[in-house]
Amino acid sequence: MRLKILDRGHRWTQKLVFKIVNWQMGHVPGPMKLLTYRREFFGEAFTDCLQQGLRDGKHWTVGELELFAAFVSKLNRCEY
Questions:
Q1: Which pLDDT band holds residue 27 (cuts at 50, 70, 90)?
Q2: What does the DSSP 8-state code read for residue 2?
Q3: How far apart are CA 73 and CA 80, in angstroms?
Q4: pLDDT, mean of residues 49-69
Q5: Span 33-41, average pLDDT
Q6: How confident is the model at residue 2 (pLDDT cuts 50, 70, 90)?
Q7: What is the C-alpha separation between 64 and 38, in angstroms, rounded?
């Protein structure tokens, strides 16, 4: 389920960034929309939590973590 607010509820500066990303990639990834919507309320804290939980672990490299994320997204039929 995709929240419609994530398609139209961003500030104009974020919408400009989305246009550039869409032009370069052909779509705007869902996580980017989620983490930038009301960033001060949710995005900053959640991004810090993700960074600590995923990137600060010493078991896998950054490339391996990105590969895991892309694979799980593919299984869930999500654009990543």
A1: confident
A2: -
A3: 6
A4: 79
A5: 81
A6: low
A7: 30
DSSP string, 52-78: IIIIS-SSS-HHHHHHHHHHHHHHTT-
Of 42, 43, 41, 67, nearest to 54 (Cα)? 67
Residues in the chain: 80
Distance between CA atoms of residues 21 and 15, nearest Å: 10
pLDDT band with cut points at 50, 70 and 90 for residue 79: low
* DSSP code per residue over 8-68: H-S-HHHHHHHHHHHHHHSS--HHHHHHHTTIIIIIHHHHHHHIIIIIS-SSS-HHHHHHH
Token couple for 14: 């974020």
